[in-house]
Amino acid sequence: xxxxxxxxxxxxxxxxxxxxxxxxxxxxxxxxxxxxxxxxxxxxxxxxxxxxxxxxxxxxxxxxxxxxxxxxxxxxxxxxxxxxxxxxxxxxxxxxxxxxxxxxxxxxxxxxxxxxxxxxxxxxxxxxxxxxxxxxxxxxxxxxxxxxxxxxxxxxxxxxxxxxxxxxxxxxxxxxxxxxxxxxxxxxxxxxxxxxxxxxxxxxxxxxxxxxxxxxxxxxxxxxxxxxxxxxxxxxxxxxxxxxxxxxxxxxxxxxxxxxxxxxxxxxxxxxxxxxxxxxxxxx
Length: 284
What we know:
single chain; mainly beta; Immunoglobulin-like; ten-stranded mixed β-sheet; six-stranded antiparallel β-sheet; disordered N terminus
């Protein structure tokens, strides 16, 4: 009896580079090396496949030992989002592509990045909850990278680094209440040589009765003379190897008075937010 040495489920080792590129090395143990599949990256949640930039196709080239390699260059421009990784066999259509399992992920070069340009391209390979390989992509230009987040004297202070723009004379940060466009808390922002810092007074966020959870998103508005859209720059933290900070970066909360508690937090997209909810300590 002949035992097949071909791997039934494709698995890929990934190496991430500082410029946003990723190398995928697949161990398929192919018995027919002349028939090469291709690697597909599909944008999760896209309505269709193969069009409108929701599918990336990467050729696979042979390596020693029967392995195959595909390269996502740093110059590629996948849109922001989560991209699932598949292998499509020759002759098969896209619907027949097979999901890839994660192998070794070398993401060391993503730590402590200092981008040289205003356009930030971040791609992090990661394992999904159901054991598949995916890539989290961000494209930001300009970008406000969040740093230390601390409570001090009744306020929440955030420091960070600004890429691709500068602060104008009337630069500010806006905390915007999700779902309520008329609820905005504006505070001045300071900084020099690419840095920024601001403090949100807790009592300004906690005004009025807080009967349920509120999520405030944080935006840096560069101001007059900065040459950037008036809508502002989302404050996030993406320049390392963490693809989802929501559950891994947990900050303590602080009472804001009037029965409210304020807690800084990150979204699943690594955007910095402020969560306000009723304070159990003041409900008695």
